[in-house]
Amino acid sequence: MRLDHTDQQLINHFQRHLPVCERPYLEMSRQLGISEQEVIERLQSLQSRDVVGRVGSVFEHSQAGASLLAAVAAPEEQMDLVAARINRAPGVNHNYAREHTYNLWFVITAPDHELLEEHLDELERELKLSMLRLPMVEGYHIDLGFDIDWEALS
Amino acid sequence: MSTSTSLSDTATQNDFAMTERDRELILATQAGLPLASDPWAELGKQLDMGADEVLARFQAMQQAGVIRRVAAVPDHYRLGYRYNGMTVWDVADDRIAELGTAIGELPFVSHCYRRPRHLPYWSFNLFAMVHGTTREEVEDKAAQIRAVLGDACQQHTILYSSAILKKTGLRLRK
């Protein structure tokens, strides 16, 4: 996906933080040297092309209760089945296949730790696969994005 | 830019008493901030609140750490970062705080967390997510992490993602 310079600037400046003020898009437009209307239209366009998911709030996970990263080692021929079962479990919001013995990695959330463990115990029993439970012990850099290397992408 | 939080200092966030109106506001903004000149007034219409009040509550939640940030988050895969590598490292426990902070500050690392080991199955305690347009690019970035960790790191590996089987943002349940 090729983006023009202004779209690139827009992402560079605002992928981490947007101004939370009376007129956020006006404030952004001043930083970008374009009109407020153009900021809004560019955001709409980036969204319609699925380049930007949403201009959204990122919530503190601990406020939503408990969450952790878990992994299972699914036999290759059962991966689809196991993945589908994981995706049906309550509170699973990410599930990635990865090239490793532990080949399914998912994030699961629940209102509290007890429920989270219950859901995982149940999943573990059903899958008959042992599970790595890897809660965050400390966050050194929490999902703040990274600097996009536009040249490498072009 | 880096943030550091641990499970022990979430107490300050929990001091913020979220009201029913705050929850409604979060639910209304989960799909995104309205793309309109005055997004707070748009939200206010939905919630039967004044624009000023919407903005004030939103800012209060941000101040309290309930809302971590508001951002135009790009889809890295769509941009061309086809390779997502979860790099995992076995780092000496007595040096992980210092080194985790250093790795988190590398400009190309999008997430960096400490997680528990599960010996003998899993010996890696530091996770750093890196992205690349090629595998070589991911490997080059992993080599830079390796150089920072030095002899405090026993072993490491890279887990490339081969498919995204589910991805939804964190949702607050109604």
List the helices and strands and how they pair.
The complex is a heterodimer of chains A (154) and B (174).
Chain A: H1 5-14, H2 24-32, H3 36-48, E1 52-59, E2 66-72, H4 79-88, E3 92-98, E4 104-110, H5 113-127, E5 131-134, E6 138-141, H6 150-153
Antiparallel strand pairs in A: 2-4, 2-5, 3-4
Helix pairs in contact in A: 2-3
Chain B: E1 5-6, H1 11-14, H2 20-29, H3 39-47, H4 51-64, E2 67-74, H5 76-79, E3 83-91, H6 96-104, E4 111-114, E5 126-132, H7 135-149, E6 153-167
Antiparallel strand pairs in B: 3-5, 3-6, 4-5
Helix pairs in contact in B: 3-4
Descriptive notes:
The complex is a heterodimer of chains A (154) and B (174). Chain A is of the alpha+beta class and 154 residues long. In chain A, 40% of the residues lie in helices and 24% in strands. Chain A folds into two domains: 44 residues; 74 residues, Alpha-Beta Plaits (2-Layer Sandwich). Chain A contains six helices and six strands. A four-stranded antiparallel beta sheet of chain A has the order 3-4-2-5. By secondary structure, chain B is an alpha+beta fold. Chain B folds into two domains: 48 residues; 85 residues, Alpha-Beta Plaits, CATH 3.30.70.920. Chain B contains seven helices and six strands. The N terminus of chain B is likely disordered. Chains A and B meet through α1, α2, α3, β1 and α4 of A and β1, α4, β2, α6 and β4 of B. β1 of chain A pairs antiparallel with β2 of chain B.
N-to-C order of helices and strands of chain A: HHHEEHEEHEEH
CATH architecture of the largest domain in chain A: 2-Layer Sandwich
Derived from helix and strand composition plus strand pairing, the structural class of chain A reads alpha+beta
State the name of the first-level CATH class of the largest domain in chain A.
Answer: Alpha Beta
| Average pLDDT level of chain B | 87
Biggest sheet strand line-up of chain A: 3-4-2-5
Q: Point out poorly predicted stretches of chain A.
A: none
Number of strands of chain A: 6
Helix content of chain A: 25-40%
Oligomerization state of this entry? Answer: heterodimer
Structural class of chain B: alpha+beta
Q: What's the total number of strands of chain B?
A: 6
What name does the CATH topology of the largest domain in chain B carry?
Alpha-Beta Plaits
- CATH fold name of the largest domain in chain A: Alpha-Beta Plaits
Radius of gyration of chain A: 20 Å
Rounded average pLDDT of chain A: 91
Portion in beta strands of chain B:
25-35%
* Residue share in β-strands of chain A: 15-25%
